[in-house]
């Protein structure tokens, strides 16, 4: 085993998914598991699908329990990571699944999250140009948000190739695990089954500036995103429909060629064959993004659709993919390429 | 009983919903029920939820079986309505739930449906300006498509008040009953449960020109719609997220005021209080549309979201609402205002 | 309007269903709506599907707010009804949707619920022999539990006709609304979607003695029930599979004839035609029970399956059906016979 | 790679699950993929979740295409396996996921399946006493049915220890993938979502004699099973509630001890800790069975509940587990122990 990992926040959904993947990882061994309110309980009470860990007891999330590991994955509520990370040595690889260190612009942080900006860590999306090198050399990783992962992977080829105008409209559907394991009435099964609902409408969702940050970097100019999230009756999965005005003269062939080029060497990005459109069912439990793109000739818009599993590629899988790079391991190691269907 | 109604295509989902509503209609009596392949079978084999009609046998869809009724509701495959309607007398109110007579522009018909244009009937959306008078005086009604119903109701106040630019982007999620009872692999329960998928991407969905027709009429200038439909794991319901650039200077207050004005006297349109966003669960089985609107100040876009039940307000309820007008009955008669939840 | 009704516990699922049905009831007017923690909030925040009541504010559940109504429906947590009922006059019809007054045997109450037995009220299942007369003459009604409703309706004809031995095995699947609107982790959408789970296994579910009480009364001798409930990924509905050894010599014909006889004059009981089996989809939102019965010739067991909507016939619809009798109204008044499907 | 495998029936659900598991199997290489109606199409059109095989073309299911492999997995309609198997050499390991060779008793075959009995192959349930030795020495394996797998694993400890009477009542809920990818109206998403339904009631389901065969062998005397299957709104999973009268004098402690003993060395059987009950969510995508048992003291019945994934442990995983034994490989090789949740 090359590395020993602790998982803080092990009783939540992101924590559970990290453990599911780490159990199959050939070079990372599972060390301490910690929780907040659930400290002292068995993991099997929270994640009964993880047979080999069922009898492990959860410790408290303290610098002491997390110390002495090569990697520490943080799956904590927003705002809690900085204090923990400070106490871990600079040699420890710290991978934060929360939002605290994702944004480079303090003003954007304050506008969308409020309170002081904790700082900026290298952004854990290896598919962004030049990002693999950054991740290979860091001990701190900010794992992208689930929606920004889907939206960035859907649109970066169009912006990298200069085929889309920087006025993006995104509507995305997410499974309920994206909201975490919080006990809120609108997340009860009786409420979500059989219903799609909108929330955080009007450009107020906190993932919006992160999408703009990513796409602006690729485009080399400011990109504005109008983002509307919706909640769909499924546990996992994001389907992001991303549109932008096509640059005059763009053809469907040029658009497809740009995506083929951009995805050619990417292990986890999959451009579907013409005529096949993404479904979250293609990526359930997998670290893959399934993407398709079309040119709406009448409305002159680029329409790119991405499907990911919000807990895998959108959180825990993405975290391990970046951690693999930082640990000097093959990027794909231990990450499922195939989903579970039907 | 004021009127006797036949339902052609009674074994499908639209037919079943028509019957569910007509069973509670105080002034319409149910007459002949007909089908195509299912002629000769009991209705209870197809719609076991309709207790009083369980033992009714389905006749064949012919002019003879449909003759002698005051109203004939057609829930037939696209292309089949014209031949049937021609044989029904001019005195008979014919209400077509199919697409054949919705579009005014033959070129749009040919571009999206192919084949010759059957003609244009009065459009059964009473909420459009001036449309109630048209519907009170007709014996032929083209029931709107389910998606155009949701999109038109979401956006007409913004266009009527001149607050939105005519460059619309719509992404909508629909329950699977919108695809009818057709035996296609992608509609199997095993495929749709737990998954959201995109289809007809790139501006090719047939409901697109119908949306443009409605919004252009309201706006008084050509409106272009980029429309992407998605399939969600629920039986019923449409959630349409509709966005358009805000006209410069528009405020959130002006936007809300326009919607309050437009919805003030509408029996089936419901503007949610500020802060509450539509869910299809609000309209399950009801003839209501639940709408909310916001101004995305950063992206300067109007975001209007509408939830409807695709089979009720989106098809059968809308059909009966218009038929009520044509029959000289109160518009709301026999139509459920409240949904079934949770 | 013949009667004015208050609903205590209006923000929960049973309360919401009572209101949905009362809104369509021609002889009952909706009066005070009260809640516990949710007092002071708008009903629309909890039941946005009930359009006409959206702006009604919830009062506190006190004898004062509930006084002055002809009928008071109690949809309160177990144990809370007695104190409220005591303070309402003997002239007021009190209909308790909770368990407090269902059991006749104090020992059974203590064994399954613990604590002192509050008493016994007339049992609100009009389909039981002789029960309509009892209900017509009472001002206090104990509404049956949802599972006992399904199981009793499935099996009473077999026991009334002496065709089944008193050793019953029941396994039932319930939708999640049966657990109410309580914020428990296992009721989150992420947990319940895509999964069926068992709970309260081993004969410990509190509805067990109620099933035995009903079936023993019909059979005229003690009936034992082994009951296992399961939770299914749907909001509403109970499917109860009920089996008992067949009395020697019983034939399939005799069994069916007994059910036909028992159901002949029952407005809400529906024996499906041979070959069709119950689905909860047949009864969604309806006050109907769909029942089928078979004789397993090899295992010599009677297998009766009942589908109901746990919130309608299983709670609120059953409550109103009994209240209609007590108010001297037609039993079926205001109650939906047909479900909403698909 | 130790072995090369062909999969016949690769476009169906069982075929897809075989491929999902074989893609991760370190000692089995995927060879020919064949289909019936879907011959000539790409695998990616049917199983888009299997990224590396998306471009593989499906051949026809003929002895020629299947020849030359070490293992041939048959996932064919019932009745089709015998003809194919005959043409494959005795050296080829043939693993039949269909029912043709499961039953030892020709009379049971004829009573439940009709037509002539094709024969009997070694039964692929390694957990049955003595069965591992049989499977290590065979070139023909009959994979158990999904329901019999769940029921046998739930009850064999009770019968092996002589704690249960041979009069079993089983009610099981299955996800829709158990019915395969057949285009039948009752399997459409619109029909199955939000509904639980019964089918094949009255002791007529074809898996019944297989359950009796297994439990009788363990008990050493004839066991009768009354089996009622139900269809639940989920893609995968079986939850089987299995009850039998307790032998007089049996205690809860003795019962639990028998299960602990029986499961002690089983890699894929998991007895849950006291108080935790099986959910299909615990086994989604895993080759595990989660089991719990209780004694209903009042009704004097053993209640054992098992959850499995019908496509994994119930079909493809079970098939590979048995094939591992026949190929001389470690039994657990390539099989997922952990499920995907939530």
Q: What does it look like?
A:
- The structure is a homotetramer of 342-residue chains.
- Chain A contains ten helices and 13 strands.
- By secondary structure, chain A is an alpha/beta fold.
- A seven-stranded mixed beta sheet of chain A has the order 8-9-7-10-13-12-11. The first copy, chain A, has a six-stranded parallel beta sheet with strand order 3-2-1-4-5-6, covered by helices on one side.
- The longest helix of chain A has 15 residues, at 146-160.
- Chains A, B, C, D: Its main location: cytoplasm.
Please provide a brief summary of the model.
The structure is a homotetramer of 342-residue chains. Chain A has 342 residues and is of the alpha/beta class.
Write the layout of secondary structure elements.
The structure is a homotetramer of 342-residue chains.
Chain A: E1 3-8, H1 13-22, E2 28-35, E3 59-60, H2 63-66, E4 71-74, H3 81-86, E5 93-96, H4 106-112, H5 131-136, E6 140-142, H6 146-160, E7 167-174, H7 189-192, E8 197-198, H8 208-219, E9 224-231, E10 238-245, H9 252-263, E11 269-271, E12 289-296, E13 301-308, H10 312-326
Parallel strand pairs in A: 1-2, 1-4, 2-3, 4-5, 5-6, 7-9, 11-12
Antiparallel strand pairs in A: 7-10, 8-9, 10-13, 12-13
Helix pairs in contact in A: 1-10, 6-8, 6-9
**What is the 3D form of chain A?**
globular
Note the main sheet of chain A. 7 strands, mixed
> What percent of the residues of chain A sit in helical stretches (DSSP H or I)?
25-40%
Q: Name the CATH class of the largest domain in chain A.
A: Alpha Beta
> Using CB atoms under 8 Å apart, which protein chain pair has the greatest interface?
A-B, 50 and 50 residues
